[in-house]
């Protein structure tokens, strides 16, 4: 009988999002983060001003752990920003309450947040409804997810970026599929061992 490491419910972590929307750049912030602006704003400004297109960093705040992910915006909706290297910045705050609600294993919570944050959907128009909470699935203490970088090294090396993106996409597909029917995902031979370990961790016997 299969034992599932992820449950069917999830815990919301408040997010902030910066993008060049169709009518210009804007920062959208979950209500829970607005009173904490003095804590997170310097880190957001620092990451936004960094010329690198791919960044994943963590910062310790009084209110919890701030994860910031910056990715290149390959489909920038603002034509004025297309030639300026536009990026999408996503951030989420992992408070002690959120971490404990997801799992007793802090590392498992970080694994999920690291993978889910950079693929959180972002609207093309700032007037559209925007997801401002990262839904992190509850997991059991035995949950394990293979990572392509040291858990404490959050500045991803160039050579592992493509492999990490593939794992993120696999996880997203997996979480949207009924647990008793794991998806058949096309993978390259070099990715197969990663996928086997991923499925083993989520659908172990």
Brief characterization of the structure:
This protein is α+β, with helices and mostly antiparallel strands and 205 residues long. 29% of the residues lie in helices and 26% in strands.
Structural description of this entry:
With 205 residues, the protein is α+β, with helices and mostly antiparallel strands. It is globular and about 50 Å long. It has 5 helices and 6 strands; from the N terminus they run ββαβββααβαα. The protein starts with 5 loop residues before the first strand and ends with a helix.
> Which H/E pattern describes the elements?
EEHEEEHHEHH
Radius of gyration: 17 Å
Helix content class: 25-40%
- Mean residue pLDDT: 77
Give the CA-based shape.
Answer: globular
How much of the sequence lies in strands comes to 25-35%
Alpha-carbon distance between the termini? Answer: 6 Å
Count of individual domains:
1
- Given helix and strand content, the structural type is alpha+beta
């Amino acid at each position: 009988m299969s034992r599932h490491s992820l449950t069917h419910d999830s815990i919301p972590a408040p997010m902030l999002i910066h993008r060049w929307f169709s009518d210009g750049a804007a920062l959208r912030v979950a209500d829970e983060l607005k009173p904490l602006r003095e804590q997170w704003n310097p880190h957001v400004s620092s990451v936004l001003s960094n010329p690198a297109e791919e960044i994943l960093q963590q910062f310790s705040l009084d209110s919890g752990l701030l994860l910031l992910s910056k990715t290149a915006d390959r489909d920038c909706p603002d034509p004025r920003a297309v030639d300026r290297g536009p990026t999408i910045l996503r951030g989420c705050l992992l408070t002690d309450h959120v971490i404990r609600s997801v799992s007793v294993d802090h590392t498992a919570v970080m694994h999920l947040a690291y993978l889910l944050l950079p693929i959180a959907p972002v609207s093309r128009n700032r007037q559209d409804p925007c997801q401002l909470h990262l839904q992190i699935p509850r997991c059991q203490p035995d949950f394990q997810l293979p990572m392509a970088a040291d858990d404490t090294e959050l500045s991803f090396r160039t050579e592992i970026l493509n492999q990490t993106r593939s794992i993120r996409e696999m996880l997203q597909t997996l979480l949207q599929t009924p647990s008793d029917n794991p998806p058949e995902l096309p993978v390259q031979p070099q990715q197969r061992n990663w996928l086997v370990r991923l499925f083993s961790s989520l659908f172990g016997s």
